[in-house]
Design goal:
The chain is of the alpha+beta class. It contains 3 helices and 7 strands, in the order H-E-E-E-E-E-E-E-H-H. The strands form 2 sheets. Strands 1-2-3-6-7 form a 5-stranded antiparallel β-sheet. The protein has a two-stranded antiparallel ribbon with strand order 4-5. The chain binds zinc ion.
Length: 176
């Protein structure tokens, strides 16, 4: 059996909900973390938040160098941005937003606090791609998507394009 989980895509409502804090890191949660890691590498992506696999739990996994030698999966539980500064613009995409990318402005440096999977507190000072990735994934846990950071014109164009795509898909499914 594959451990890869289904990735929910916009406009699935679970992506718009706030994930709940984790109170207890049990074996079920460890399994979810492993499966989220496998799902992220299979996609492939550099980060994945639990909302994206339909779980409203404050967990994210990331590896900003997933194609390098030796994967190094990082896990953050109950992550919080405790400081942000500077500005960086990056062309972002998302495993939950099909067929779209756009420039998003974020902090260029963030300090993030959370726990690892062994309940050890972690403090991370991140810059560049890691800073972008952590802000993007923490947004997911708060029910936000990178689409919320772009202009409303671009966003409505994408929504219209997506509706057309989904309609086409549905039509071809009903024909089968
Ligand atoms: Zn995303």
């Amino acid at each position: 059996m594959s451990n890869v989980l289904k990735i929910y895509t916009f406009p699935e409502p679970v992506l718009r909900k706030k994930a709940e804090p984790i109170e207890n890191i049990d074996s079920e949660l460890q399994e979810l973390i492993d499966r989220m890691g496998e799902t992220m590498y299979a996609a492939p992506g550099v980060g994945l938040a639990a909302n994206q696999v339909g779980e409203l739990k404050r967990i994210l996994v990331y590896d900003v160098n997933p194609l390098g030698d030796g994967r190094n999966l990082s896990v953050l539980i109950n992550p919080e941005i405790i400081h942000g500064e500077g500005e960086i613009v990056h062309d972002e995409a998302c495993l939950s937003v099909i067929d779209f990318s756009a420039d998003v402005t974020r902090y260029s440096m963030v300090k993030v606090r959370g726990y690892d999977r062994h309940e050890k507190p972690v403090d991370i000072e991140a810059e560049g791609l890691l800073a972008i990735c952590l802000q993007h994934e923490i947004d997911h846990l708060n029910g936000k998507l990178f689409l919320d950071h772009i202009g409303s014109l671009k966003r409505s164009l994408y929504k219209r394009r997506l509706q057309k795509m989904l309609k086409k898909q549905k039509d071809s499914e009903t024909r089968e």
